[in-house]
Description:
Elements: H1 7-17, E1 25-26, H2 27-33, H3 40-49, E2 58-59, H4 70-79
Parallel strand pairs: 1-2
Helix pairs in contact: 2-3
Amino acid sequence: MTDDGGTFTEAVITVIEAIPAGEISTYGEVAAEAGFPGAARAVGHLLRTTHGLPWWRVISTNGRLVPGLEREHAQRLRAEGITVTQGKVRMGQPT
Length: 95
């Protein structure tokens, strides 16, 4: 996926910044809401390379936390009231 003049980046950042504390979205949901359905991997890449975003509020569709950052990810989610069990967030359940 190309970033035509920053449109993708700006749209995704806007969506991520709008996720309230205590709520989560999946990479795919963020991509779709930004107007780029199917760009879940690109959302993940953007989160890895852009500092200052609430990256912990974006998770995979299976609820798994970011590999290598599981401890920090879980701590940040728990601090916002989201239940994390065995390295996962239960999707579709109240947090």
